[in-house]
Predict the structure.
Amino acid sequence: MTPTDVFSMVNKIAIPMWILMIFLSRWKVTRFLIDFKVIPIILSFVYAVYIIKSLQNGGQMDFGSLSAVMILFTEENAVLAGWVHYLAFDLLIGMWILDQNKELGVHQALIAPCLVLTFLFGPIGFLLFMIIKSIKLKNYDSHKHS
């Protein structure tokens, strides 16, 4: 299997999970996949394989400077590993957002943009969720003390 094939495969397993989380977040299948972190575990396994392959091919994991990181990301296996890293961790953040929202109870129409932004731009979706969460908690506290 080529890195291009693996790139296509990991996208094909990550994207449906995002769709489930955005549109069917309470469905029992979605909750099972979230609770047991099935897709991030699969992605983490793929990541580990490509990191090991990169190291076995003599690749150096030099993150000491921007130029060293730029050189690292000229290697196909390293770029693939980096992509899988993004997919796995962004997905974990999306799952964390949904878990947090079980207690917050923010309407899914407000959570969906957080999930879409987390999928597309990682930290921006996380930031939006944290803003919504702080507003929700502030409103809860003001009602609690009035």
